[in-house]
Amino acid sequence: METFLKQLLSEFNISQSKSSESAIAKLSHNAKINELAKSITAARKQALNIFQMYNDMEEFKESQLILPNAISKKYYEYQFNLSQFPHISIKEIKHLDKVGLAFDTTLAKIYGTPSAAGSMDLQISFAGTQAENQTEDIKIVTLIVSADPKDLWLNKPSNKNDLYPKEDNDKYAGTFLNKHIVVASQRGRSHAHEGSFRDDHFCVKKLPLDWEIIAVADGAGSAKFSRQGSRIATESLTNSFADELLLKELNDRCIAFFTSGSGTKPESNEQPNTIVEDQQIKNKSSIINILYKSVRGLHAELTRFAQQEEIQLKDLNTTLIFSLAKKFDFGYVILTFGVGDCPINIITENPDDIKLLNMLDIGDFGGGTRFVTMPEIFSNPNMASRFAINKFDQFSKLILMTDGIYDPKFVTENKLEDKEAWRIFMKDLNGQNEDNLKVDFLNNEGIEDQLLSWLNFWSKGNHDDRTLAIIY
């Protein structure tokens, strides 16, 4: 109380003296003075609160508030930070409903999924938190809703009256050996934007003696008729293996190769191991030679077609990968070939055991993309390394893909045998993606449509054709 009285005397310029000290001492316990002091302190505090409230309102109104841009068709959320303005509250935001957004007054949060792109001025209605002022004021803030990048791409139908027409999308589901297979191929956004054809192609075929084959090709975007090149590559290649005599020889060679030449008797001056090794080399060479003849025959077929149509062979430029497979008593034999930048991967019964089954022509190692239409492929010393002979007791998935999948999902070649990259990829297929699209491998009904929908994923800068084949 003494402090209050001394401050009061000072405010009124009354100098303190012996008598004033005595008066202060007598009044320090005066009930009336105590009552007045409390009411004055409360009034001052109330006046200060009112000032702070009005000050917060003015500062909020004058503050530079920039709302982050929203994106059409994508969930948006923005929470106001009112910690700098504790004496105000936002009552309403007008015009949000025009784009499908709403405002939560309790959380001071804008939320929702904008339905369309555009720019609008929002009217933020706010007021002080004290009962002394319920007068609302308005602050104008601009919200920009950017277009969904997908919506910027046109989807023009291809001209079916052009040479070598092809459907914009293709899909297939069925059985493969004693497993299932699903394949989907989608025209890339770059082609759709221009109304040009899909260059990817695939072909699945059941063959005599329980062999089966899946071939996938990615026609070069720079080649005028690569869409036809990829079609010929896959269809001609798979048809070339329909010869039962050829498959009988392949059967015998695979059995001999994977049973390590048992039953062979060494001659007098030869060691058993040497004979077995020599026989294995012969068996391997024979298997590769059978595969080579089909690929070589394909090149001849492409050459004949180019001459017949009076076009250049390079107009048909296309990559090619295939897997020729059969289930024997001793396991699954999987024969593969690849030219270009499309991978073939197998996931064994151990989900962390992932193998790349073909050589890729990418980066410094391959010197750039190669095409099966290139004659130099067949004269190159590394031609035999393009073929692979593998046997697996079991496998969970055999996967072939074009670079439209490989580039956005794996980016680099070393990720193709990285278990974490594959774990992420399989989770993506299982629905852990921004579109919540799932390929249900447990329920085969409509799986080809699910995979085709999944292929529509968004990846900035990756708008090529996409083809993905999964044997599971």
From TrEMBL:
InterPro entries: PPM-type-like_dom_sf (IPR036457), PPM-type_phosphatase-like_dom (IPR001932). It comes from the Bacteria. Residues 187-431 form the PPM-type phosphatase domain. This is Protein phosphatase 2C. SUPFAM superfamilies: PP2C-like. It holds the Pfam family PP2C_2.
